[in-house]
Amino acid sequence: MLAMLELYENKLSNNGILTWRDKNRREFAYSLVGTNSYMAPEIIKGEGYTKSCDWWSLGVILYECLYGFPPFVSKTKHATRIKILNWRQTLHFPTTPHVSKEAQDLIKMLICDHKDRLGSTSFCHLYSNPLHTISKQSNSEIYQYSSDAEEIKAHPWFRNIDWDSLHKQTPPFVPKIKDLTDTKYFEELSKDEVLQSAPGIGQYKIRDLLLRDKVYGEEVLQIREKLAFKGYTYRRKDIPIYNYIFISLNGESNF
């Protein structure tokens, strides 16, 4: 989580990584995306949201790291969303394990209304005017958010963290692996689980004849999983490509 905060700040401070060239574009997103347990209320409501929703998700991740489960977890997706929408009544802190008051305070400052959310100061003005644009940088048409991670990093719970040397420190847990393909820290998936149907749904419900094949079905599924995103690329249209690629005089690309 500390690395996430440091990486987020570095991205914001690095010229051009989080930039916009269309000064008239809306700074809100409206698509319903993400995992239910980590969604901010504004996403579920479809009100339009900014990157401040990421800090809500960070609060959920912090809660899960400390308590072992997400704060709004339920048996169904619908029940989870209802809990999130009513977070004032449903956000509780168990008595065990023991978690410091400062940690709980940080969580409460992240899992809260978007206008009060820690790290969201630079986004608050957007909610009053959805058409508002980011302040102009010099004479260019490039716009950039300020470093909102600083607010979170300044919280008392992080008082003993040396952010400047964090990337040089040895983490508390270092995986011992034989090589880059060693996956012993990942849960093994048994062969029976690969093509296992959902409860109450028989094998005949699988429409694809290849996947139903008892001999080759599993192999076909594995191949499809490996190639599912083969050749897939995505680049945001609103970020100038020259912020990522610099063309040298001899025509070569330097990253």
Secondary-structure topology with pairs:
Blueprint: H1 2-13, E1 19-20, H2 41-45, H3 53-67, H4 77-85, H5 87-90, H6 101-110, H7 124-128, E2 143-144, H8 149-153, H9 191-194, H10 209-212, H11 217-227, E3 246-247, E4 253-254
Antiparallel strand pairs: 1-2, 3-4
Helix pairs in contact: 3-6
Describe this structure as you would to a colleague.
Residues 159-244 form the AGC-kinase C-terminal domain. Residues 1-158 form the Protein kinase domain. One of its GO terms (biological process) is cytoskeleton organization. It is a single chain. The protein has 255 residues and is mainly alpha-helical. The chain has two domains: 2-168, Transferase(Phosphotransferase) domain 1 (Transferase(Phosphotransferase), domain 1, Orthogonal Bundle); 175-250, no CATH class. The chain contains eleven helices and four strands. The strands form two sheets. The protein has a two-stranded antiparallel sheet. Strands 3-4 form a two-stranded antiparallel ribbon. A hairpin with a 5-residue loop joins strand 3 and strand 4. Helix 3 packs antiparallel against helix 6 (101-110). The protein is extended. The protein starts with a helix and ends with a strand. Residues 11-26, 123-145, 193-204 and 239-255 have low confidence and may be disordered.
